């Protein structure tokens, strides 16, 4: 029935309920919204396009030779947002018969992942009594939230059993049970549903209220993988993948493993131990480098006359830790402001400047404010940075001779 208002449109016939494997359909436009920046919202009497619902992203495809960019449902009325040329959009009016074509690869991937989630959630519930409290199936990620915790071994066992259900090639069927039958059934549901309830059943594994399309048999899923587990809102969030998307990820991971195996000259099953060994060697080398840098710093410091005030040095390369240690050593030996600039004339310098402060050892010495040096550099050379009287850090784009000349202005 045609209408001039979205609010008065009749509920949309959901062809995807009974025909999830159909690739195309024909429907009548009963409402066409105004054109907005190359898009238009359409309500049809029927549709194969699954809307964003139940945590799942909407279907993709073409409708009347226009690209479907969004599908939403409200009070049983499904609205399609389409994008196309002005010529295509302006002829889409109530009463027009239009053809819709699904992006099948996207739809089937969603079916694989959604049924895979049902299998995992069903096993978590039947084995441990955990309830599914959240689900998100987007183009980029699939997450499952449940109100419990499992260690690595527990998750591996659930994953193994989920894939056993895939190998069993069990039938998956969706039904709208009569109300009296529904009252005697055991099925999962996160909310109270007042209208007809669609129950998706995988015999011996799961029964759950669900509005989305699913595969006919579990064997079509291919594989179910649990990728990551983290504590979330008092429970657990699993990142999962099934079907083609899981296969694509495993292929990508295998390439990475082969590359790392080649780089480390280790077998794939020995990579964890190999990486651990490399990290330990790296930590040992960093310690040795730090010791050498401290020794070099001490030698350089001893070569500077003790009576020299306001000492500033430039280095081509130095770690931030060594740079800070160098500055601390200078401030220990010299009055005024002391700093180390690391970089070069073409790219600029990163600096740390310190100034000796009051303590038991230097209570009779004159004390300076490192911010004075930073202020000079900012005023004369546009330097950036800041800090406290004892130490400032920042960067400056200038030649070393220019920097030295500016710092000569310190008293």
What topology emerges from the helices and strands here?
Elements: E1 13-14, H1 15-18, E2 24-32, E3 39-44, E4 46-47, E5 61-63, E6 66-74, E7 77-83, H2 86-90, E8 97-102, H3 104-128, E9 132-137, E10 142-146, H4 152-167, E11 173-175, H5 179-182, E12 199-202, E13 206-209, E14 224-232, E15 235-242, H6 243-264, H7 271-302, E16 312-315, H8 320-333, E17 337-344, E18 348-355, H9 370-381, E19 384-388, E20 391-396, H10 400-407
Parallel strand pairs: 1-4, 16-17
Antiparallel strand pairs: 2-3, 2-8, 3-7, 5-6, 5-8, 6-7, 9-10, 10-15, 11-12, 12-13, 14-15, 17-18, 18-20, 19-20
Description:
There is one protein chain. The protein folds into four domains: 90 residues, Elongation Factor Tu (Ef-tu), domain 3 (Beta Barrel); 152 residues, Threonyl-tRNA Synthetase, Chain A, domain 2 (2-Layer Sandwich); 38 residues; 104 residues, Roll (Diaminopimelate Epimerase, Chain A, domain 1). The protein starts with 12 loop residues before the first strand and ends with a helix. The mean pLDDT is 91. The chain is elongated. Strands 2-3-7-6-5-8 form a six-stranded antiparallel beta barrel. A five-stranded mixed sheet has the order 16-17-18-20-19, sandwiched between helices. A four-stranded antiparallel sheet has the order 9-10-15-14. A hairpin with a 2-residue loop joins strand 6 and strand 7. Helices cover 35% and strands 28% of the residues. It is of the alpha+beta class and 411 residues long. The protein has ten helices and 20 strands.
């Amino acid at each position: 029935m045609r209408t001039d208002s979205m609010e008065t449109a009749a509920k949309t016939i959901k062809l995807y309920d009974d025909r999830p494997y159909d690739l195309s359909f024909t429907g009548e436009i009963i409402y066409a919204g105004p054109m907005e920046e190359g898009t238009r919202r359409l309500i049809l009497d029927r549709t194969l396009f699954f809307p964003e619902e139940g945590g799942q992203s909407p279907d993709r495809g073409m409708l009347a030779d226009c690209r479907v960019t969004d599908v939403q449902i409200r009070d049983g009325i499904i609205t399609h947002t389409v994008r196309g040329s002005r010529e295509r959009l302006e002829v889409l009016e109530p009463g027009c018969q239009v053809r819709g074509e699904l992006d099948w690869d996207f739809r089937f991937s969603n079916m694989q992942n959604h049924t895979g989630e049902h299998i995992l959630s069903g096993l978590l519930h039947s084995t441990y009594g955990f309830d599914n409290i959240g689900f998100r199936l987007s183009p980029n990620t699939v997450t499952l939230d449940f109100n419990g915790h499992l260690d690595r071994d527990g998750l591996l066992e659930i994953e193994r059993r989920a894939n056993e259900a895939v190998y069993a090639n069990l039938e998956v069927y969706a039904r709208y049970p009569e109300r009296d039958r529904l009252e005697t059934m055991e099925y999962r549901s996160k909310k109270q549903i007042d209208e007809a309830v669609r129950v998706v059943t995988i015999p011996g594994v799961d029964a759950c209220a669900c509005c989305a399309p699913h595969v006919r048999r579990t064997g079509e899923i291919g594989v179910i993988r649990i990728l990551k587990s983290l504590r979330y809102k008092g429970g657990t969030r699993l990142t999962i993948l099934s079907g083609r998307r899981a296969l694509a990820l495993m292929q990508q991971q295998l390439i990475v493993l082969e590359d790392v195996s080649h780089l480390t000259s280790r077998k794939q099953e020995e990579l964890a131990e190999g990486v651990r060994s490399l990290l330990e060697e790296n930590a040992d080398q960093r310690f040795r480098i730090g010791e050498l840098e401290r020794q070099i710093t001490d030698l350089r410091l001893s070569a500077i006359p003790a009576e020299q005030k306001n000492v500033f040095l430039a280095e081509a390369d130095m770690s931030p830790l060594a740079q800070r240690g160098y500055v601390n050593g200078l401030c220990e030996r010299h009055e005024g402001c002391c700093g180390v600039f690391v970089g070069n004339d073409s790219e600029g310098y990163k600096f740390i400047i310190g100034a000796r402060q009051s303590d038991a050892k230097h209570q009779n010495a004159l004390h300076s404010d490192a911010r004075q040096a930073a202020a000079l550099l900012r005023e004369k050379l546009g330097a950036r940075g800041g800090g406290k009287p004892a130490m400032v850090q920042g960067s400056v784009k200038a030649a070393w001779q220019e920097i030295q000349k500016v710092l000569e202005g310190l008293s």
